[in-house]
Amino acid sequence: MAELRLTLDDAYHWEKTMPDRVWMTQPIGDGKVETYTWAQGMDQVRRMAAHLQTLGLEPGSQIGLISKNCAHFILADLAIWMAGHVSVALYPTLNADTIEYILDHSESKLLFVGKLDGWSEIKKGIPSDMPCISFPLAPPNDYETWDSIIAKTEPLQGTPRRKPEEPAIIVYTSGSTGRPKGVMHSFEAIARSVEGAEEIFHATPDDRMLSYLPLAHVFERFCVETQGLRSGMQLFFAESLDTFVADLNRAQPTIFVSVPRLWLKFQLGVFQKMPPEKLARLIRIPLLNRVVKKKILTGLGLQNVRLAASGSAPIPPDLIQWYRDLGLELLEGYGMSEDFAYSHATMPGQARVGYVGSPMPGVDVKISDEGEILIKSPGCMMGYFKQPEMTAECFTEDGYFKTGDRGERDEQGRLKITGRVKELFKTSKGKYVAPAPIENLLNNHPEVELCCVTGSGNPQPYALVLPAEELRPKLEDPAERSRFERELNSLLDSVNGEIEAFERLQFLVVVKDPWAIENGFLTPTMKIKRSKIEDNYGPMSEGWYTAGKRIVWER
Questions:
Q1: CA 331, CA 164: separation in Å to the nearest integer?
Q2: Which of 83, 194, 283, 525 has the fewest CB atoms within 10 Å around its CB?
Q3: Would you tell me the crossing angle of helices 187-201 and 7-17 to the nearest 10 degrees?
Q4: What is the 3-state secondary structure (H, E, C) of 437-490?
Q5: CB count, 10 Å around CB of 162?
Q6: What is the DSSP track for 341-396?
Q7: What CA–CA distance (Å, rounded) separates 516 from 25?
Q8: What letter does residue 222 receive in the DSSP assignment?
Q9: Regions of the chain short of the pLDDT cut 50
Q10: Distance between CA atoms of 187 and 381, rounded to whole angstroms?
Q11: What pLDDT sits at residue 176?
Q12: What is the pLDDT of residue 444?
């Protein structure tokens, strides 16, 4: 059997075989970019690794990294591994209290500080005695800089290797409740996951990807960083939300992975320029069909995409179908922090709308008697850092990881997610309601950005609805508000017509303030934080039930 090729080995391979090829393209402001060839990037990695080895840290020490996506995030990861240590990435949207907790719990000895918003809040969570190194795009600070270290340090020589069983990263889960847990992944789990993905997606050095979803999460670590290092593809980075379209057009990606919320925003942007009825009519005209589709995809910067995927959260089936009607076979995937996002994927040509796909190579799956999805994956975690009891609780006696998700499989083994085991709530009639499938129906509407179905202990559930971002300012106009209310009444009838009587929504509540990562209503991967939403709106629900209206506007 061939020796397992670890992520560090991938980097050495491209450094040796195509040193002058551009590896990463980093925006640096004002429309300018900086590029790194494999030789240039790996030279910086070697110099930083050499510096880390001079610090006298115990082998296998944890080193923190807090930054938005940028080239130096990946360079720092490689330097940490090359020097013999473990990378602990923190979400750049965390509050000071959580940052302080993770740095303490992970026993991090050093922190790389990178490209960040909200620095005044973030720095409160960094202990005053914590040694820090500042990336070139970091906010102003007094830390030693990456560039100064690189300038004065000779590169580490040779090809230092890590053992497959050693920990490579600790990922602190974004979690919707409680303190985040530190998910430990070995070099072997990462390599096995990348190998399996290689069998399906066949990425090459000619592929291009844009990195903009948080690299602190395993989804981007798996899809972009480690698969990029395996395939040798060129990576581009987004500068900001304001420049996203320009960044996307610069990258001209051939592989594009996103989350449902962004796929919906793309669709709404198209609808602003062309009403959906008119677009559907044009696509049905044979002579115009191809021209219209190409124009729309080009406007989105996706005209060269050969592989498009959605993950991290459920995506409405109608939205998937809309992109497929445009000629973009939008594939869905399913994975967790605990299996390095290596679980299920829709294989090209084998899609079934509403299903997240088939088990990836080497993945074994079964459904428990309670309907819970149980997984054995080559990407399975080593465990939760310093929490062996919690680790043991998450596995069955025969070694399957308990995902906490409910699901079902079709005759071809494709998986459908039907909700969370712990998200079920009971009405006062004693009936259990699974909110996720109802939320998917509501989210099919193009003017609904997010929603949350709740109502535990009441006769019937209800749903909180956040209007699409582009629509919110218009709702100050009474006419527009009246039109949207009619849309919601129709949506309520439609959804209630598709579900069981005990699940039917008594009313919809239009919320006025956005749900965002920054205010704690969304996780860093843009899933709703159900407990936070219910705590915030729950006290008002009695009045909403008493009012007896079908559409309620939050005051």
A1: 31
A2: 283
A3: 60
A4: HHHHHHHCCCCEEEEEEECCCCCCCEEEEEECCCCHHHHHCHHHHHHHHHHHHH
A5: 21
A6: T-SEEPPTT---TT--BEEPTT-EEEE-TTSEEEEE-TT--SEETT-HHHHHHTB-
A7: 29
A8: I
A9: 176-177
A10: 10
A11: 47
A12: 84
Nearest to 459 by CA among 422, 400, 489, 501: 501
Q: Give the integer Cα–Cα distance in Å for 340 and 363.
A: 12
Q: Give the per-residue pLDDT at 406.
A: 86
**CB-CB contact of 475 with 467 (8 Å):** yes
Residue 222 half-sphere exposure toward CB, CA atoms < 13 A: 32
Task: Assess contact for 219 and 213: CB atoms under 8 A.
Answer: yes
Say what the pTM is: 0.83
- Write the DSSP symbol of residue 180: P
CA-based nearest residue to 80, from 136, 142, 156, 24: 156
User: How far is the C-alpha of 216 from the C-alpha of 87, rounded, in Å?
Assistant: 10
Are 223 and 203 contacting, i.e. CB atoms less than 8 angstroms apart?
Answer: no
To which residue do tokens 């079709």 refer? 410
Residue 36, strand partner residues: 24
DSSP reduced 3-state for 64:
strand
Q: Six-digit token pair at 542?
A: 């009695």
AA letter at 309: A
Paired sense of beta strands 508-510 and 462-467, if any: parallel
Nearest Cα residue to 143 out of 155, 153, 128: 128
C-alpha count within 13 angstroms, C-beta hemisphere, residue 427: 19
For position 550, what pLDDT does the model report?
A: 95
Structural contact between residues 69 and 27, judged by C-beta atoms closer than 8 angstroms: no
Other residues' Cβ atoms within 10 Å of the Cβ of residue 500: 9
pLDDT digits (tens, 9 = 90+) for 489-527: 999 999 999 888 889 999 999 999 999 888 888 887 778
Least Cα distance to 11 among 44, 54, 53, 58 occurs for: 44
Q: How far apart are CA 453 and CA 455, in angstroms?
A: 7
